[in-house]
Design brief:
- The longest helix is centred in the last third of the chain and has 26 residues, at 49-74.
- Helix content is 72%, strand content 0%.
- Helix 2 runs antiparallel to helix 3 (49-74).
- It is an all-alpha fold.
- The protein is elongated.
Length: 79
């Protein structure tokens, strides 16, 4: 669990109510959107396109896991 808290510190911040959870999720989605936009621009470079595409997949996975962990932490499923 400590390893997850180390890689996803924003997900494990204290959330008092549903509004704080929604703000947390929106921040994750905005970061994913901005990163996706930048990766989409950089993926057009022929040599780096495949590597940048893989990084894009990792960013998407990070955002998804961050949102799921944030919801699970809010519902007190994770200790």
């Amino acid at each position: 669990m400590e390893l997850l808290k180390k890689f996803f510190p924003f997900s494990f911040q204290a959330k008092k109510d549903v509004a704080a959870l929604v703000i947390n999720i929106v921040i994750y989605l905005v970061v994913g959107l901005v990163a996706g936009f930048l990766i989409g621009i950089l993926a057009k470079i022929p040599v780096l396109g495949m590597i940048i595409g893989l990084v894009g997949g990792l960013v998407d996975l990070y955002v998804l896991v961050g949102v799921v962990l944030s919801v699970l932490d809010y519902m007190k499923i994770l200790k």
